[in-house]
Amino acid sequence: MKLSDLRPCDSCGGPISPQFHVVRYSIALIKPQVNQVAAMTLYFGSLALGELFSPEDNVVTVAMDEDEFKKLAIELLICQECYLKGGINLALLAEKRLSEIQKGK
């Protein structure tokens, strides 16, 4: 991470130095091919065998792992004080950060 990429804490808006936390938040999706794995699992009576004999066994896509979904990944910077006091609402912070990204901040 470059120094120019740093910004205030996404939770409180305060400074993040000298120590802070980076939270990478992404969406995970279950593909429709999960039905193939489920059917094979029922047939064989074992998830391991169902995945083995299914045409596609990777049925969960994590947004940060796929190039086409990289735009859905959110990176939050949390100062040490906010991290330690807890009570952070990740969904709210992710929405706020997404709005800032769309505005070009």
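The record above closes out task 2.4. Task 2.5 opens with a second protein, given below.
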Amino acid sequence: MKRFILSFIILLITAHYTSAQKSNIQIAFNFLRYGQLDKAKEAIDEATVNEKSAVMDRTWYYRGIIYQSLYQDEKYGNLCNQCLDEAYRSYQKVVELAPHGDLADSVKNFQLPALASSLFNLAVADFNAKRFSSALQNFEAVMKIYPNDTALLNAAFSADNIPDKEKAILYYSKLVTKHYPDDNIYVALANLYSQQHQNEKALAAIQEGKVLFRDSLKIILAEINLLLALNKPQEAVAEIQVAIQKDSLNTSLYLASGSTYDKLAHPKDSVGNDLPKPGNYNELIGKAESAYVKGLSIRPEDFELNFNLGALYFNDGAEMANQAIKLKSDVAYEKAKKEYEKRFRDAQPLLEKALKFNPRQSQEDQNIYQGTLQSLKTIYARLDQKEKYAEMERLLNQK
């Protein structure tokens, strides 16, 4: 009899304990109904750490709803740092514990869509506020719930802005695989590869974009730059001509065209040594000159076009001067001298404009500036312009 009473008492205690846990879940739900989210959170958190109620799908279902509600509440939103993440984890737990239950169906059909919408809005707000790391985290959370191209695109943009190059390449590559209809994606992926000195991969990305966007000037310009970087001038020339047809007022294209023809006229080996001039040297130099002249007719103050055309004339004059020295006849030399001096005079105003308009902002600008000073110094010496020569000396000696 005593043993029966003891067993009965143990059963009562167990029943009361289980009931208490269920009651705790109900209490959390009641607090939620009346907007007392602080107390609802406290009750549901207690239920989730208890070994009995922690295995109930209802516990995690209410936890998800409570934490999702906390995110939207001005008064109690500060009670959790990652409210929506916690809500997502809770809904995952519901499906894990009872994948075929009614609550799992509710999570899939109602709670998760609402949660994805909230996470997306939060991610957009983070992105607009330039909180790119947080934006990336939230866009990735959206992708876990409902993978879609919009979230993937924004995740790529966020990663690119952090910058997290590894994730940016990953997400841009996924968009490329999906043939996402935006030429910016292919250019962005190519730029990332170029920054990592993987120009072959960059070119492959651009050429994949070219299949979809044959008329995209962005794609064409990116391909030109990569072909030049990969020392493929012949292919670059063809693309430049296509680009000029699409944008005939773009002086950068004439600069690229002239530089490429100049490069073809002065080939080098793999280590940078000069190779013999091609048979069509004069034709190539003529095309380079025409490209620079056309560009300057559009934008006369472009310092790079002025420098390149001036350098072309200067180099021609310098070569003519070197050949003149070899002449044994004074008459022949004087004739040759007039010819190379004329070439230096052709170069002089162009290089002077290059010096005037050079903004000297980038390292490349500084290199062009120093090269301009050196060339002008030589010209002024050859043409006996002593004051200008002295000025170039002074500028070259400045630190």
